Structure formats: C-alpha cells, structure tokens
Amino acid sequence: MKNVTDSFVSLGHWPSAGSFGFNTDILATNLINLSVVLGVLIFFGKGVLSDLLDNRKKRILNTIRNSEELREGAIEQLEKARARLRKVEIEANEFRVNGYSEIEREKLNLIDSTYKTLEQLENYKNETINFEQQKASNQVRQRVFQQALQGALGTLNSCLNNELHLRTISANIGILAAMKQITD
C-alpha cells in the first residue's frame, strides 16, 4: 500500500516537460475541472433536468387544480351548511315565538280558569251564607213560634175552664165537619 501512495505522491513531483501529467496548481485545476464537470452535466443532464422540472411542474399544477376543486367543493358545502343554519335558526325562532305564544295562551287560560274557580267558590260561599242565614232565621221563627205557642197555651190553660174548653172543642169539631163537607 505504501507503494501506491508513493506513486501518487511522486506523480505530483514530475516535471512537466511537454508530456502528460498532473497540474499541481489548485486554483487553475479546480476551475478547469469545474468547467468540464458543469459542461458535461449541462450537456447530458439538460434533458433529465428538463424532464424533472416538467414532472415537478405537472405535479404542482395538478396539486393546484385539485386544491381548487377541493376549495370549490368546500365553498359549496359551506354555503349549504350556512343555508341549513339559516333555515334552522328561522325554525328555532318560529318555535321560540310559538312557544312563547303558547305559554302566554296557557297562562291566560290558567288565569281565566282561576278567576272562574274563584267566582264559583264565591258563589258557593254566598249560597252557603244565605242558606245558613235562612236556616238561622227559620230556627229563630220556630223558636219564637214555639215560645208564642207555649205562652198562648199557657194563657189559654190558665184562662179556660172546663166549660169554655168543651165549647172550644165543639166549635173546632164543627169547623172541621164543615170543611169535610166542602171537600166531599
């Protein structure tokens, strides 16, 4: 291996006497080598590079086209969703308004029903009061009548003797007999 490296190192020291050899001037050799490599790359790589760029351009255009189609589809879906949202909002507002109207109607019906029930209770109360007043009035009348009757009987019993008592009974029997004849 030492022989191989020695041969390359010794190649660098050859005098250039018009024969083929290596140029040890780094700046000059790099520019020449780079020019040769770039020339070869441009000559042979122009078609490959052009094909690569064309393929890349086609992929970019396809991606842009696909993106535009997706964007248009997304815009259509967004518009449909907005239309559905507006429709649902309108329906929700209608339900809300109808619900409030229904609640107000039910509230008024409940108030009317409560007032009617209160009026019926007031009427029942008044009827009960009237009935109790009539009942009390009748009881007072009966009591007064009983007391008057007892007072009259007491007065009659104390004032009547047997003869007067027999005459009163005979008169009453006569009145009853006359009434019987009239009814027959």
From TrEMBL:
GO molecular function terms noted in the UniProt entry: proton-transporting ATP synthase activity, rotational mechanism
Domain of life: Eukaryota
Coiled-coil residues: 64-98
Membrane topology term: Single-pass membrane protein
Pfam families: ATP-synt_B
Localization in the cell: Membrane; Plastid, Chloroplast thylakoid membrane
Keywords in alphabetical order: ATP synthesis, CF(0), Chloroplast, Coiled coil, Hydrogen ion transport, Ion transport, Membrane, Plastid, Thylakoid, Transmembrane, Transmembrane helix, Transport
InterPro entries in the record: ATP_synth_b/b'su_bac/chlpt
Major subcellular site: membrane
Gene Ontology CC entries for this record: chloroplast thylakoid membrane; proton-transporting ATP synthase complex
Keyword match Transmembrane: yes
Membrane-crossing segments per the record: 26-49
PANTHER family in UniProt: ATP SYNTHASE SUBUNIT B, CHLOROPLASTIC
Other comment: In plastids the F-type ATPase is also known as CF(1)CF(0).
Subunit structure of this chain's protein: F-type ATPases have 2 components, F(1) - the catalytic core - and F(0) - the membrane proton channel. F(1) has five subunits: alpha(3), beta(3), gamma(1), delta(1), epsilon(1). F(0) has four main subunits: a(1), b(1), b'(1) and c(10-14). The alpha and beta chains form an alternating ring which encloses part of the gamma chain. F(1) is attached to F(0) by a central stalk formed by the gamma and epsilon chains, while a peripheral stalk is formed by the delta, b and b' chains.
Function: F(1)F(0) ATP synthase produces ATP from ADP in the presence of a proton or sodium gradient. F-type ATPases consist of two structural domains, F(1) containing the extramembraneous catalytic core and F(0) containing the membrane proton channel, linked together by a central stalk and a peripheral stalk. During catalysis, ATP synthesis in the catalytic domain of F(1) is coupled via a rotary mechanism of the central stalk subunits to proton translocation. Component of the F(0) channel, it forms part of the peripheral stalk, linking F(1) to F(0).
Family: Belongs to the ATPase B chain family.
Name used for this protein in its record: ATP synthase subunit b, chloroplastic
Native species: Bidens schimperi
